[in-house]
Amino acid sequence: MGVQDHYRSAAAGFDASRLSRLDEHLQGYVDRGHLPCYHVQVVRHGEVAYSAYGGMRDIASSSPTTADTLYRIYSMTKPVTSVAAMMLVERGLLRLDDPVAAYLPAYADQRVYVGGQAAAAVTRPAAGPMRVRHLLTHTAGLTYGFLRVHPTDEVMRTAGFEIGVPAGMDLAEATDAMGAFPLRFDPGTSWNYSVATDVLGRVVEVVSGTSLDEFFRTEIFEPLAMDETAFHAVDADRLATLYHGAGGSAPTPLDALGAAALKPPTYLSGGGGLVSSMDDYTRFARMLLGRGELDGVRLLGNRTVDFMATNHLPGGADLGSFGIPLYAETPFNGVGFGLGFSVMLDPTAAGYPTSPGEYGWGGMASTVFWVDPAEDLTTVFMTQQMPSNGYPLRTELRQLVYAALVD
User: Is 150 found in the same domain as 31?
Assistant: First the structure.
């Protein structure tokens, strides 16, 4: 078994013995050799109801997971960047309907793919401009090179944009280059998981007049006392090793990819660049649950967070009907998308017993978090294994957490 801290389970409305199933279940993955490490933490009514961790931070050296282990959170960076953008919206410095080209000229006169091979793509002018809201909702027409399902993905890979960007490029250079790639569809007409939040990070830099890491540090991390979250590991000795594993295979170290987190990067990825700890990201999630406020520190107004956590897909559609169901850190049926998060619309369609209005996101190393305003609850899960869909961890975690609620 891993290390369990039950804290105030009963006071938070949980059955402690049922919560302990979380540790039993996750430790089972470790014992079978399918997962290197884990840490799960559940907070309700302001109380840490449950926290358990186990496995090895690094298997080769037999270094155990500890409460202060650091993790690459990858796409759980996206909600942080989205919060940063909405802070600028609140200050009147940015508007959701602003064309992206107003801040990044490379995004003027964009073209949409209509046919042909990637090396000789046939394109047409976009029907309308890409807007800031499209970046926040992944409806910009952008894509990811690693998706490997469409010629626009191949265009990105051929240019060196698969996981990450070409060596030596900073955020300004990379997002300018991305602006020249053909879009998969006209902005606002569909949903596709993409580099949109990286582009949004560059918009934050231009509007604020400061680098993304500095904005995060001074406007979000320091106010929230998130002292161990940055674009690199603040203590390399506590950084978990990154692994690959799926389908019952033993975790295999991804040393080259994982090493990127050991030093400050040239490219500040607002879509996937942060390293964080359990306690730090729990504080971020609790700020969201507090509708923009935590421990007397307010980053956003109540209504702004409510607005972000509302489905923004046209006509109230879910991702299953409006999105391209190829890859994402969330189910598609019954799930909408807000300004930076997936948003639960219909738990029955999604297939697990959560609450309508629950929102959150995950990262490609299988981390995940969610905020459930109806239950006054946050859950954060950390591990370091790619791909994130190698095992049904996220569905299982929700089942286990909600089965332990007994009030």
Answer: no
pLDDT tens figures, 342-358: 999 999 999 989 999 99
Q: Is 223 found in the same domain as 133? A: yes
Residues 260 and 279 reside in one and the same domain: yes
397: in domain: no
Quote the mean pLDDT of the chain. Answer: 96
Q: Is residue 373 part of a domain?
A: no
- For residue 5, the model assigns a pLDDT of 63
Q: Are residues 19 and 119 in the same domain?
A: no
Please report whether residue 406 resides in a domain.
no
pLDDT digits (tens, 9 = 90+) for 67-100: 999 999 999 999 999 999 999 999 999 999 999 9
What confidence score (pLDDT) does residue 7 get?
Answer: 63
Instruction: Identify whether residues 3 and 100 lie together within a single domain.
Output: no
Range of the domain at 130: 69-242+252-300
1-5, 28-32, 230-234, 280-284, range with the lowest pLDDT: 1-5
Is the full-model pTM beyond 0.90?
Answer: yes
SS3 letters for the chain?
Answer: CCEEECCCCCCCCECHHHHHHHHHHHHHHHHCCCCCEEEEEEEECCEEEEEEEEEEEECCCCEECCCCCEEECHHHHHHHHHHHHHHHHHCCCCCCCCEHHHCCHHHCCCEEEEECCHHHCEEEECCCCCEHHHHHHCCCCCCCHHHCCCHHHHHHHHCCCCCCCCCCCCHHHHHHHHCCCCECCCCCCCECCCCHHHHHHHHHHHHHCCCHHHHHHHHHHCCCCCCCCECCCCCHHHECCCEECCCCCCCEECHHHHHHHHCCCCCCCCCCCCEEEHHHHHHHHHHHHCCCEECCEECCCHHHHHHHCCCCCHHHCCHHHHECCCCCCCCCCCEEECCCCEEECCHHHHCCCCCCCCEEEECCCCCEEEEEHHHCEEEEEECCEECCCCCCHHHHHHHHHHHCECC
Examine the domain organization and report whether 202 and 53 are in the same domain.
Answer: no
